[in-house]
Design goal:
Radius of gyration: 13 Å
Order of helices and strands: HHH
Largest sheet: none
Helix content: 40-55%
Number of helices: 3
Distance between the termini: 7 Å
Strand content: under 5%
Structural class: mainly alpha
């Protein structure tokens, strides 16, 4: 499941506008953690925080872009 989500996240990253020429989404190491507070969901990642400096944009902007472009078949992650 995490591999499927990581691949979908990299694909969503690739769709972000105005990426630096040297940025390769396939090189991004997407890791997941289980949030301590269950109200925060089943899995979490800090990939937006990690990419803020290299992409020269806010983590929130990156996270919103990923969320908007994320396409996952629910049957693949249950």
């Amino acid at each position: 499941m995490e591999d499927t989500l990581a691949a979908a996240g990299r694909s969503a990253l690739a769709s972000l506008p105005d990426l630096p020429d040297a940025f390769d989404p396939s090189d991004v190491d997407v890791e997941f953690q289980t949030p301590k507070d269950p109200s925060h969901g089943d899995l979490a990642t800090n990939v937006a925080l990690q990419l803020a400096r290299p992409l020269r944009r806010s983590p929130r902007q990156i996270a919103e872009g990923i969320a908007a472009a994320l396409q996952v078949d629910p049957a693949q992650v249950e």
